[in-house]
Amino acid sequence: MVMYDYYETAEQAAGFARKALALMDERKILLNPRNFTIWYSYACGNPLALVKAIDEATAAGRTYSEEVGRELWDKFLDASARSTVVGDASEKLERQINDVMHILDLAGTDTRGYGKALRESVEQLARTNALGTVKDVITSLVTETQTMADRTRALELKLQASARETAELRVSLEATRRDALTDALTGIANRKHFDQKLRELMAAATPGEPLCLLMADIDFFKRFNDTHGHQVGDQVLKLVAKTLTETLKGRDTPARFGGEEFAVLLPQTALDSAVIVAEQIRVRVASRVIKRRDTQQQLGAITLSIGVTEYRPGDTVADLVQRADEALYAAKGAGRNRVHV
Known about the structure:
Layout (H helix, E strand, L loop, with lengths): L9 H17 L6 H12 L3 H12 L6 H11 L7 H44 L3 H50 L10 H14 L6 E8 L2 H8 L1 H18 L5 E6 L2 E7 L3 H17 L1 E3 L6 E4 L2 E7 L6 H17 L5 E2 L1
Parallel strand pairs: 6-7
Antiparallel strand pairs: 1-3, 1-6, 2-3, 4-5
Helix pairs in contact: 1-2, 2-3, 2-5, 5-6, 8-9, 9-10
């Protein structure tokens, strides 16, 4: 069983989390990491088989229980592949929700007690005109009001602490999400991020709006790696990634596709402009001289072969990537260190 990936933005994830909590509250479901993950998955519709199973069980009148939850988990979600970060986040979220609910419960109790004291004071004032009694009532009200103010400040401090912890959790989850979409070696988008971004761009494509894809491969990289070692090879990969980042515009997405192969998404870029960008990348990489960091020995230059293609209405992700790959291998077949459309 494979753990399903989630591609939501931070805002979308927050919305799905709220929806999941509402669904769980409506069904009186115990808030624990496993149940939260199941209902979060249901809220965002991923995986579809899980959504269908829950809908069918609901239609059949089957009540959600811990036993049902375990069945859904074992069948549709792989516990062994589950990220510990997600589990920790769920547990922290559960604790935060329980803390806030407790604080609000305390606030309700204090407010009801204070209201009762006010009502009793009003009734006592209505029954007497004695100055001493009025003074006693006022003293009592001052005491109750001070007590309520102290409790309110204490509750406010608890809520502020809870808000800070929740904000820290969100920052941590966002950092984890970024790390999951970033290639650890080069610092640019990884294959997962590339796949996600390409699907988003294709889904949002409108007639007449161009979208191009570049696929680039380092020429003779294996030979270079075998000759000079993997550490030098890693520096070459970083250099290519840095060159891509420096050459591209803000809306473009460079990614490490795998091994020594890189991909570049160029939204709102026509085919002829994409060829110009590819040529700029090729020239910049070829102009770099590779040196050993320890000895400053020059190891020569590296070159890229680049394939370019343009999105066509009706293309699938596989269609677009395959055409770019075919163009890339045509560039290699024509002698390498060149761009092919």
